[in-house]
Amino acid sequence: MKKYTIIAVLILFSNCLYSQRTSFSIVLDPQINWLRTELDEVKNDGVVFGFNGGLVLDRYFTENYAFSTGITLWQTGGKLLFTEETNIEFRDGTETLPPNTSMTYRLQYLTIPLSLKLTSNQIGYFSFFAHVGINNHISVGERGTVESLDLNKVGIPEEIKFYSMSYFFGGGCEYSLGGNTSLFTGLYFTSGFIDITTSEDYRATLNALSLRLGVRF
Asked: What are the C-alpha distances in Å from 184 to residues 175, 195, 213?
């Protein structure tokens, strides 16, 4: 499945690159991440710092509207507090977490956004943009830390689903450096709407608040 996903991404990039109205950007998003649950027995126990970075392609179909996609590596995660005894499948075997145990999730995803970007006309050197869409996440790294059990960044591949999805929205401003080159920054909010876990006892979704920094060519 990973093989076909990579082929599909390359085809999509090729189509965008042959368009005369395509811009190419490099982005880096420092962010705070957390996990949201719906059960009293499993609660959010804090945030973790992460980042999202990679390549973005904007293909304009009018002067101010663009279809936006790309490929990024998302380093994310969160902390959960299990108020009841819980079994977790680590790479080295099953561990039973005692009641009121906190576990930190460190996750990596290959992310492919499908989105719409709206850009204002340039005012002096500045323009403004709004950005909204969905993210497709493919898991490429899953680790868990339980300090009370001396488990540090141990693999938890059986606990995390291969695929997840989220929506995002954000906006910001862009500063032209001349020609097709510009710098931009913005604020983004991301919220998952598919359970990332394989557990039948609870569900958790990923959330993030990001500062986007980028260079467009």
From this structure: 6, 32, 6
| Contact residues for 167 (Cβ-Cβ < 8 A; gap 6+) | 132, 133, 134, 135, 190, 191, 193
CB distance 161 to 90 below 8 Å = no
Domains and CATH numbers, the chain: 2-216 (2.40.160.20)
Bridge partners of 127? 174
CA 192 to chain centre: 9
Buried b (16+ CB within 10 A) or exposed e, 2-34: eeeeeeebeebbeebeeeeebbbbebebebbbb
Q: Which DSSP helix (H) or strand (E) runs through 82?
A: strand 65-82
Residue 17: φ, ψ to 5°: -65, -30
d(CA 25, CA 200): 40
pTM, whole model, 2 decimals?
0.87
Render pLDDT for 137-156 as a digit per residue (tens, 0 to 9).
999 999 999 999 999 999 99
Residue 99: is it exposed, middle or buried by C-beta count within 10 angstroms (0-12/13-18/19+)? exposed
Q: How far apart are CA 187 and CA 24, in angstroms?
A: 19
The answer to whether 39 and 6 are in contact (CB under 8 A) is no
Residue from 105, 133, 124 nearest 48 by CA: 105
